[in-house]
Amino acid sequence: MPLTPVELRHILHQTPELMFKEFETTRILLENVGRLDNLIIHRPIETGFVAEYKVNDGDYLLFRADIDALPIKEETGSEFSSKNDCMHACGHDVHSSILYSFAKYVTENKIDRNILFLFQPGEEGGGGAEHVINSGVFNQFNISNAFALHVTDEYEKGTIASTSGVLFASAFEIDIELLGKSAHVAFPENGIHAFDALRVLLDEIDVILKEQTERVIFGYGKILSGTVRNIVPAYCRVECTIRTLSRKKSEEFLEKIVEILEHVSRTRGVKYNLLKGVLYSEVVVDSQLFNKLSKSLAQKHKFIDCGYKMTGEDFGFFSHIYPSMMFWLGTSQGEHYGLHTPKFLPDDSIIQAGTDIYKDILNEVK
């Protein structure tokens, strides 16, 4: 017998794995999804999979859940806490369990609609959606619409929050290395101070940020520099993210950063390396889908037009290919820990809530 969705959630939560290393996660999901009737399993890349449900010659709906976790030590005190140093602090265990629950409903009730259930790896910075798309696995299907949800304790439990147009920002992770020359601090003229060059760089980026006419975030959360207190640091590395409302704007802002790097290199004598991560496209909610579904869903659920958020999400790769709808699913019962924190733990009951919303969406787009 396959596990119940709640049982599956508990097992997934106890065995979190980082992006593209979700081997046990994939095995657990396959073991249970594979027991459902009338599903064909496709393995486009090493982890994750697509479960195809085909009952007619029509087009397909795509429903996606992400499966990877984060390098965060859990502090929830839950009876099904993580058994390693990683954690499903972004709720991907819940997303996967909701999609599994929805697949159970579809197969057990023999729903007359072709559906693809994607259990996707590598969302947390790896751009797993792009990897799956580039595999060509979807080329054989006529996909009419794509759907996804994301849990959050920003909103009350059961609340649906979305918007027409840009829902989530384009996100671009970059690392900058500055290479100087070490020297004793008593003789700074003999060295090239890499961290001082970084301070200049960040100050100049702040200047161009104030000149932007659209919303742009340049964030940096980790800086590495120096060896001992009395040596001029010859190396500095800063890990950054760019958030804008379009992929094009992210690329344009990176060009400005490169111009500043060139200037700092010339004036401060440092060399630099620019290391680029995956450039996430903005998540766009199709206006026609939003107008249709927001009205129908609001009849049974609390529905909020939340406007855009500067959150990054690789579902944007799908939303630029297929007319799509993504939404927040509120989980809060008074708590507000936030995503990517060691205490984030939605209640199991949100699995049924998410499943019911997917059922309602299915009824509207059938």
Describe the protein.
This protein has 366 residues and is an alpha/beta fold. The chain folds into two domains: 5-164 and 286-365, Aminopeptidase (3-Layer(aba) Sandwich), CATH 3.40.630; 170-279, Alpha-Beta Plaits. It contains nine helices and 14 strands. It has helices spanning 5-14, 23-33, 92-108, 128-134, 194-210, 247-268, 287-297, 316-319, 350-365, and strands at 40-42, 49-53, 60-66, 114-120, 143-156, 160-162, 165-179, 217-225, 235-244, 271-280, 283-285, 303-305, 309-312, 324-332. The strands form two sheets. The protein has an eight-stranded mixed β-sheet with strand order 1-2-4-3-5-14-6-12, sandwiched between helices. Strands 7, 8, 9, 10, 11 and 13 form a six-stranded mixed β-sheet that branches.
Outline the secondary-structure elements:
Blueprint: H1 5-14, H2 23-33, E1 40-42, E2 49-53, E3 60-66, H3 92-108, E4 114-120, H4 128-134, E5 143-156, E6 160-162, E7 165-179, H5 194-210, E8 217-225, E9 235-244, H6 247-268, E10 271-280, E11 283-285, H7 287-297, E12 303-305, E13 309-312, H8 316-319, E14 324-332, H9 350-365
Parallel strand pairs: 3-4, 3-5, 5-14, 6-12, 7-13
Antiparallel strand pairs: 1-2, 2-4, 6-14, 7-9, 7-10, 7-11, 8-9
